[in-house]
């Protein structure tokens, strides 16, 4: 999208056209484009409106129904925070007593929208002019939100009355490749972290692959997953980290939320041992935060292998409504399976075991093995109506297969 496309979209006719388009369907896009152009609609407007229609359809994954009233850029949507996670960011600033928050790299305005929705005054900065214009559109319903086309790191935060700051530095190259080195972020992570010396209440969204060695000692580093996908890590400073520095995992599943935090005296070392009656697969946020051994501790279990994030136990952890008050619901931060069989990895033996059970639909999970699931599925030549789950992994250094069923 360029300036002319944006100008046409924001005209009364352009906005009406965008609102009148049917739900986006890739198969019908070309036909619709040709029809609109035959009716005399500017081809540039047609292309821009259909592009926004496509982006809005994709944006519903992050913004739900709000996406239908927003504008997007492809890069901005890719990096934008999901609404459910942005609300968690905003709640931190509210709980810290902040009243005016600067979003130093606001992009299309997703986090600024979440902050504004809680009644916070927001100063949103964006260095790219077109993206700043898109953010202005998306924040149009919030009179206390101000968007500036400016480098956010150059703002006079104290002079602007800012008492909280947030940043989401770009982590992709112009070609779309992910940048995992914090020094290659735009702006670099160290430049963003320097803001906390001016405004102690600083939050920074970073990539979930950030190494633990890159996390400052004074930060709460929280890895966040949504319905099984690890979507981000956040670094929180000062009053935004009320429990102090450390590593935490936040697991969001549907309407539920569970948090796991490293103890102040350090993360315990888990024992290693053979499979028990149950297998626990920790959520990705738990794995990224390095807290798998806490799951093992809570289920009185052990790791199958010291380098693989599978926990086994002879006991089934209670559900949330069966847990003692205040006790972490382990089942909220991991997936539990009942172990039905354990065998050394071998194609013939596995094929025989599955055929004896009449398995025709198979879920293949793997860690610590080079087996390609789709290739294995073809080799197994599955037949039958039953469903099953197998876990391919190492147990004590040896390749094993666990036949399991979800609890």
Q: How large is the count of helical segments?
A: 13
Residue stretches low in confidence (pLDDT < 50, at least 5 long) are none
**Spatial strand arrangement across the major sheet:** 3-2-1-4-5-7-6-8-9
Give Rg in angstroms. 25 Å
CATH superfamily of the largest domain: Vaccinia Virus protein VP39
The succession of helices and strands, N to C, reads: HHHHHHEHEHEEHEEEEEEHHEEEHEHEE
Shape: globular
Helix content: 25-40%
The secondary-structure class comes to: alpha/beta
Q: What is the CATH architecture descriptor of the largest domain?
A: 3-Layer(aba) Sandwich
Mean of residue pLDDT? 94
Give the N-terminus to C-terminus distance in angstroms: 48 Å
Beta-strand residue fraction: 25-35%
Main features:
13 helices, 30% helix, 407 residues, 26% strand, 16 strands, nine-stranded mixed beta sheet, alpha/beta, seven-stranded mixed beta sheet, Rossmann fold
């Amino acid at each position: 999208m360029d300036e002319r496309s944006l100008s046409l979209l924001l005209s009364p006719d352009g906005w009406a056209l965008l609102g009148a388009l049917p739900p986006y369907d890739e198969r019908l896009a070309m036909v619709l484009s040709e029809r609109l152009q035959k009716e005399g609609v500017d081809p540039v407007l047609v292309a821009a409106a259909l592009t926004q229609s496509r982006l809005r359809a994709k944006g519903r994954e992050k913004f739900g129904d709000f996406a239908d009233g927003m504008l997007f850029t492809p890069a901005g949507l890719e990096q934008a925070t999901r609404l459910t996670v942005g609300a968690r960011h905003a709640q931190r600033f509210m709980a810290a007593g902040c009243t005016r928050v600067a979003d130093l790299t606001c992009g299309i305005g997703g986090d600024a929208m979440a902050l504004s929705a809680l009644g916070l005054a927001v100063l949103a900065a964006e260095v790219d002019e077109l993206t700043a214009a898109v953010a202005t559109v998306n924040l149009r319903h919030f009179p206390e939100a101000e968007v500036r086309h400016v480098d956010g790191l150059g703002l006079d935060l104290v002079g602007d009355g800012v008492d909280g700051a947030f940043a989401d530095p770009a982590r992709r190259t112009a070609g779309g490749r992910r940048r995992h080195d914090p020094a290659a972020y735009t702006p670099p992570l160290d430049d963003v972290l320097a803001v906390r010396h001016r405004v102690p209440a600083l939050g920074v969204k970073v990539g979930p692959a950030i190494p633990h060695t890159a996390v400052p000692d004074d930060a709460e580093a929280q890895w966040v997953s949504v319905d099984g996908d690890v979507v981000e890590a956040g670094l929180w400073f000062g009053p935004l980290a009320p429990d102090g520095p450390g590593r935490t995992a936040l697991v969001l599943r549907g309407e539920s939320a569970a948090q796991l935090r490293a103890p102040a005296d350090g993360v315990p070392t888990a024992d290693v041992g053979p499979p028990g009656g149950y297998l626990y697969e920790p959520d990705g946020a738990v794995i990224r935060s390095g807290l798998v051994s806490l799951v093992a501790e809570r289920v009185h279990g052990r790791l199958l292998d010291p380098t693989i994030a599978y926990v086994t136990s002879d006991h089934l952890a209670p559900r949330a409504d069966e847990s003692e008050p205040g006790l972490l619901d382990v089942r909220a931060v991991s997936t539990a399976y009942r172990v039905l069989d354990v065998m050394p990895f071998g194609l013939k033996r596995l094929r025989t075991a599955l055929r004896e059970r009449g398995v025709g639909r198979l879920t293949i999970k793997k860690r610590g093995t080079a087996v390609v699931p789709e290739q294995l599925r073809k080799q197994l030549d599955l037949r039958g109506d039953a469903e099953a789950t197998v876990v391919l992994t190492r147990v004590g250094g040896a390749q094993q297969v666990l036949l399991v069923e979800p609890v």
